[in-house]
């Protein structure tokens, strides 16, 4: 049964505002791990002898692969031992690996440590969603996740600017020192303030059979599976843009030091959309908002793709069309995740790990393909966005039995 918000907040030992802020900080680990280094990718490649500029994108891909696969471990672990201990362990691994990157001699060593860093960060991704599901359900969960995503989106807004500032006064190694300090800043309130949110009665044994049974529950739930696949496809578009953002905004459009500002504007659109969703979801429901946004995402990406195939896109038109897709994504993400998690509260940790693994690995691979297709134009990115939009729409239609906009219950 869905708990009243004021009662639910007491489970964590935090007020609603404190809870949202801490969950957003935990989710921001992944954003800062990627976005703060975008201004430094060129110098990282030059410093470590990376000749092909597309290969610099592997700094992001390695991190996503580590984070994706490790979620399969952290989810069941948190269902057995609770949320706090695995979360703090992951944060420790994340921070130590960030510091170790400062001393890497080769690009291969950097990629390995980025993989390890992603493994540590997996705890923040999967356990944060599990904690939110422990405390909230239904439209309340969608509202809270929207607010978390809104605060979380502040990081992509400011992280590239922080990275640019570091590059102006220091060099790329200092970026990873800042990342390590951020890990400490997040770990302290978790250790000192956050209560254990997993009730002892809901703990599951950490055995192979129990883990496989939990995975079977997730993978045989049509709503959970296909909303997860839809999110994976759309995340692929987002990762594809992140992978090639520096090459497009600096290389194609020549923005130079203005790159962080334009990147921040796109992230800001998602933050505005997440806030809008948090205000509207209780009234209109998750399906009405997210399904309309998915159709809008598909239409905007189709116009973007068609225009890019005709000829080079002027910067204002590119910004307008890309901003339109980012706004729609902000309306989709929290709702799709909430709808995927809603029927799986009894296995929240395992469910979150399977969903997170699928979304991160699937989205990371799709994003890598889109990023590696970069050819000094925005056309591959536009084609990628429209393709994943169609795939996501098909997945949602399968999940909903061919019907959009139909609430399953008053909380849908």
UniProtKB/TrEMBL annotation:
Membrane topology, from the record: Multi-pass membrane protein
Listed Pfam families: MFS_1 (PF07690)
Record keywords: Cell inner membrane, Cell membrane, Membrane, Transmembrane, Transmembrane helix, Transport
GO terms, molecular function: xenobiotic transmembrane transporter activity
Primary subcellular site in the record, as a coarse category: membrane
Protein's cellular compartments: Cell inner membrane; Cell membrane
Domain Major facilitator superfamily (MFS) profile residue range list: 19-402
Family statement drawn from the similarity comment of this UniProt entry: Belongs to the major facilitator superfamily. Bcr/CmlA family.
Protein name: Bcr/CflA family efflux transporter
